[in-house]
Amino acid sequence: MKRDSLKNRMISAETGIPFRRIKMKNLNQKEQKLVDMTYDNFEHLPIFMQDSSGVTIDKINWPKLENQYLKQKVSQLEARLNAA
Questions:
Q1: Which DSSP string do the residues of 23-41 spell out, in sequence order?
Q2: pLDDT attached to residue 63
Q3: Separation of alpha carbons 17 and 21, rounded Å
Q4: For residues 59 and 67, is the Cβ–Cβ distance under 8 A?
Q5: Under a CB-based contact definition with an 8 Å cutoff, are residues 9 and 19 in contact?
Q6: How far apart are CA 53 and CA 36, in angstroms?
Q7: What pLDDT digit, counting tens, does each position of 51-60 carry?
Q8: CB of 8 within 8 A of CB of 22?
């Protein structure tokens, strides 16, 4: 499953909006706002998506992923500080 599809399915599960409507972008203004807010909330969670084929749990380098997550969080915080 591709990364965008997985994100949309997670948002669908969280919001209760059918996946097909999110995928087709057939949302009213209130639903779109809910999807946007949910997406923003997911961006702050330590979720790592590996969407390449043939990857097993043994092949995932957890420390490397955690390090990438921390670097991303530091960059986001620096961007917020610079914008303020």
A1: HTT---HHHHHHHHHHHHH
A2: 60
A3: 7
A4: no
A5: yes
A6: 28
A7: 667 777 666 6
A8: yes
CA distances from 34 to 3, 16, 78 (A): 20, 10, 27
| Matching residue, tokens 């420390």 | 63
User: What one-letter code names the amino acid at 65?
Assistant: L
Tell me the per-residue pLDDT of 4-52, one tens digit each, with 9 for 90 and over: 888 899 999 999 999 999 999 999 999 999 999 999 888 888 777 766 6
pTM over 0.85? The answer is: no
Which structure tokens are listed for 56?
Answer: 């097993």
Identify the pLDDT of residue 51: 67
Q: State both tokens at 36.
A: 């946007």
Domain boundaries, the chain: 1-45, 56-84
